[in-house]
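Q: Here's a chain of 104 amino acids. Please give me its 3D structure as C-alpha coordinates.
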Amino acid sequence: MSGDADGDGKLGQNELWIFNASLPLDQNMVDLGYFENQAIVYGVDPQNITISDISDDPTDNTDVDINNDGDPDDITHTDIPQHADLILLKEGHFNDENGNAWRT
Protein backbone atom coordinates (compact mmCIF):
# COMPACT_ATOMS: atom_id res chain seq x y z
CA MET A 1 0.00 0.00 0.00
CA SER A 2 1.22 3.48 -0.78
CA GLY A 3 -0.19 6.98 -0.56
CA ASP A 4 -0.55 7.69 3.17
CA ALA A 5 1.29 11.01 2.77
CA ASP A 6 0.91 12.13 6.40
CA GLY A 7 1.40 8.63 7.88
CA ASP A 8 -1.70 8.76 10.07
CA GLY A 9 -3.32 5.57 8.74
CA LYS A 10 -6.37 7.53 7.62
CA LEU A 11 -7.29 8.41 4.05
CA GLY A 12 -7.05 12.18 4.07
CA GLN A 13 -8.25 14.87 1.73
CA ASN A 14 -6.07 14.99 -1.40
CA GLU A 15 -4.52 11.58 -0.60
CA LEU A 16 -4.67 8.73 -3.09
CA TRP A 17 -3.98 5.30 -1.65
CA ILE A 18 -2.89 2.53 -4.00
CA PHE A 19 -3.19 -1.15 -3.13
CA ASN A 20 -1.72 -4.00 -5.15
CA ALA A 21 -2.70 -7.65 -5.02
CA SER A 22 -1.79 -10.78 -6.91
CA LEU A 23 -3.75 -13.87 -7.82
CA PRO A 24 -1.81 -17.07 -8.55
CA LEU A 25 -3.28 -18.92 -11.51
CA ASP A 26 -4.13 -22.57 -11.06
CA GLN A 27 -4.55 -25.31 -13.65
CA ASN A 28 -8.35 -25.05 -13.52
CA MET A 29 -8.17 -21.38 -14.53
CA VAL A 30 -5.83 -22.20 -17.39
CA ASP A 31 -8.11 -25.03 -18.55
CA LEU A 32 -11.15 -22.74 -18.41
CA GLY A 33 -9.29 -20.09 -20.39
CA TYR A 34 -10.18 -17.26 -18.01
CA PHE A 35 -10.43 -16.14 -14.42
CA GLU A 36 -12.69 -13.68 -12.65
CA ASN A 37 -12.07 -11.46 -9.66
CA GLN A 38 -13.51 -8.56 -7.75
CA ALA A 39 -12.33 -6.38 -4.89
CA ILE A 40 -14.32 -4.97 -1.99
CA VAL A 41 -13.04 -2.05 0.07
CA TYR A 42 -14.28 -1.07 3.52
CA GLY A 43 -13.71 2.13 5.42
CA VAL A 44 -15.08 4.26 8.24
CA ASP A 45 -16.34 7.79 7.55
CA PRO A 46 -15.89 10.79 9.91
CA GLN A 47 -19.18 9.89 11.65
CA ASN A 48 -17.76 6.41 12.42
CA ILE A 49 -20.11 4.73 9.92
CA THR A 50 -18.69 1.77 7.98
CA ILE A 51 -18.82 2.28 4.23
CA SER A 52 -17.86 -0.05 1.40
CA ASP A 53 -17.55 -0.22 -2.37
CA ILE A 54 -17.22 -3.07 -4.84
CA SER A 55 -14.90 -2.84 -7.84
CA ASP A 56 -16.26 -2.63 -11.37
CA ASP A 57 -14.90 -3.82 -14.70
CA PRO A 58 -15.08 -0.66 -16.83
CA THR A 59 -14.94 -2.74 -20.03
CA ASP A 60 -18.11 -4.68 -19.09
CA ASN A 61 -21.15 -2.72 -20.27
CA THR A 62 -23.74 -4.89 -18.50
CA ASP A 63 -23.37 -2.62 -15.45
CA VAL A 64 -24.75 -5.00 -12.83
CA ASP A 65 -25.29 -3.19 -9.52
CA ILE A 66 -24.75 -5.94 -6.92
CA ASN A 67 -25.22 -3.72 -3.85
CA ASN A 68 -27.87 -1.37 -5.32
CA ASP A 69 -25.83 1.76 -4.66
CA GLY A 70 -26.28 3.18 -8.16
CA ASP A 71 -22.74 2.30 -9.25
CA PRO A 72 -22.02 -0.72 -11.46
CA ASP A 73 -20.17 -3.64 -9.83
CA ASP A 74 -19.34 -5.95 -12.73
CA ILE A 75 -16.88 -8.74 -11.95
CA THR A 76 -13.64 -8.42 -13.90
CA HIS A 77 -13.30 -11.26 -16.42
CA THR A 78 -9.77 -11.85 -17.74
CA ASP A 79 -9.13 -14.23 -20.63
CA ILE A 80 -6.09 -16.48 -20.60
CA PRO A 81 -5.01 -16.94 -24.23
CA GLN A 82 -5.16 -20.54 -25.37
CA HIS A 83 -2.46 -21.62 -27.80
CA ALA A 84 -3.02 -25.15 -29.02
CA ASP A 85 0.14 -25.17 -31.11
CA LEU A 86 2.81 -27.71 -30.35
CA ILE A 87 6.12 -27.69 -32.14
CA LEU A 88 8.45 -30.64 -31.90
CA LEU A 89 11.89 -30.35 -33.37
CA LYS A 90 14.10 -33.41 -33.45
CA GLU A 91 17.66 -33.29 -34.66
CA GLY A 92 20.27 -35.97 -34.88
CA HIS A 93 23.77 -36.60 -36.12
CA PHE A 94 24.90 -39.91 -37.60
CA ASN A 95 28.42 -40.83 -36.64
CA ASP A 96 29.54 -43.69 -38.91
CA GLU A 97 32.24 -45.00 -36.59
CA ASN A 98 33.06 -48.11 -38.59
CA GLY A 99 32.59 -46.58 -42.07
CA ASN A 100 29.92 -49.05 -43.29
CA ALA A 101 27.19 -46.37 -43.67
CA TRP A 102 24.92 -48.38 -41.34
CA ARG A 103 23.77 -47.64 -37.88
CA THR A 104 24.03 -50.58 -35.58
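Q: Can you summarize the key feature?
A: The chain has one domain: 1-104.
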